[in-house]
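Structure ticket #2291
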Amino acid sequence: MLSSNSDWIPKMLKEFHETPQGGHSGYYRTYSRSAANLFWFGKECSAVCDGMLYMSAEKISCCSTSGLLQALNIPEQVWEEISMDFITGLPKSKGYQTILVVVDRLSKYNHLIPLKHPYSARVLAEIFTREVVCLQGVPTSILNDRDPIFIISLRQELFKLQGTFL
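Resolution: structure written out below.
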């Protein structure tokens, strides 16, 4: 138990807020953590913690806003620009449980290619070349989500199969 004039109160609140365990977690979490562990007569914990409320109000946000969505340009030819994604979590059918969806952005014509787990970037590149490139040609751009297998590996394997370098 501490007296209301104790010098330890600001020091302990600082510990609850600024140490790695406290993690600068804001006014309300710091208040609830300190109120659960500290008690003193004459002052409410919230009155002592009011200084932290000002700190959180003046804190600059470290996250920038993402901004407005931008419309994609309309392709001029069919199969010039495509989009690709996976449909996963399907029940097994003849050993297949994933579908690679490849859609032409202009005509909306699509190829649905079944896949078996596990698949690598090399296998995807070979299947993509056999099922899409052989029929429609090499697209000028591929739109996809940020799946790591797409970002690096698949494009590198596609370039290797074509004999070109990124």
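Closing remark: The first helix runs from residue 8 to 18.
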